[in-house]
Amino acid sequence: MIGIFDSGIGGLSVFREIRKLMPGESYAYYSDNAHCPYGEKTADYIIGRAVQITGILAGKGADIIVVACNTATAAAISALRRLYSDRSDPEVRKRALEISGGRRDHIMFIGMEPAVKPAIGLTKTGVIGVLATAGTLKAEKYRNTRELVHGPVKVVEHVGQGFVELVEKGELSGRNAETVVEASLRPLLDAGADVIVLGCTHYPFLMDTIRKIAGPGIAVIDPAPAVAKHLADVMKEDGLPDGCQGNGRVELLSSGPDDNLKAAYAMFMTA
Ligand code: DGL
């Protein structure tokens, strides 16, 4: 079973791609909507949530966990790997066995990363725009990725202010959504960006509105397909079944009311 979590429904944009590759796999998806958004929360707070959710997903049977949230990846994935991934450490083995009910002696984590590297090969103006949460943009993990951009290529960033709230409300288009999206996207376009990297898993749900405002000639990158492919590769290396056989069972879990999650799942995942 693959466990997937996000602060809300954003991670469904990653889940959608994973399930295309591994339709027979069983899944447990956890929306931490009682604590959403993560974007402005401290790293310690997010680590606490990530550890708790890992325990829940491993207890449900997850063999590998996708942190389908850029903000949680930036804040917590190193801590999660330290606690549960290194099977050569007896303490880690003990901990992993404990939370998985004796099934697994280590748990692997797959995280999100803003797709700055692929964007370098696509830009013609030499300007890449990154939209992400405040937490992702200030995290060391992102700063390190950004350091990889040298020479003539420049990276400009903006927080997608209000984007997560729009997606959680299911307001993906219309006048208000366009005004909200434009306020954060326009500064990147004005700076000359011809490639926009979506650095938050909620943002792909606003793709049509983002494309409408960006206009033709602007590439918009969603890293979810690449993450799904990476997950399949890591599962293979770790000796897990290939995810194509099986019953494709999906369990939806959330820390708050689950009506949003169920509606979003029905809309985006069963279409
Ligand atoms: N979906 C998230 C991300 O990828 C979290 C957004 C939030 O809760 O602020 O960053």
Unreliable sequence segments? none
Rg over C-alpha atoms, rounded to the nearest angstrom: 18 Å
| CATH class wording of the largest domain | Alpha Beta
Report the strand count: 9
Averaging pLDDT over every residue, what do you get?
Answer: 94
General description of the model:
With 271 residues, this protein is an alpha/beta fold. It folds into two domains: 2-112 and 224-268, Rossmann fold (3-Layer(aba) Sandwich); 116-221, Rossmann fold (3-Layer(aba) Sandwich). It is 47% helix and 15% strand. It has helices spanning 12-21, 43-60, 70-84, 90-99, 116-120, 134-138, 140-147, 163-169, 175-190, 207-214, 224-237, 259-269, and strands spanning 2-6, 27-31, 64-67, 108-110, 127-132, 154-159, 195-199, 219-221, 250-254. It is globular, with a radius of gyration of 18 Å. It starts with a strand and ends with a helix. D-glutamic acid is lined by residues 6-7, 10, 36-39, 69-71, 112, 133, 136, 164, 200-202.
Summarize this entry quickly:
With 271 residues, the protein is of the alpha/beta class. The chain has helices at residues 12-21, 43-60, 70-84, 90-99, 116-120, 134-138, 140-147, 163-169, 175-190, 207-214, 224-237, 259-269, and strands at 2-6, 27-31, 64-67, 108-110, 127-132, 154-159, 195-199, 219-221, 250-254. The chain folds into 2 domains: 2-112 and 224-268, Rossmann fold (3-Layer(aba) Sandwich); 116-221, 3-Layer(aba) Sandwich (Rossmann fold).
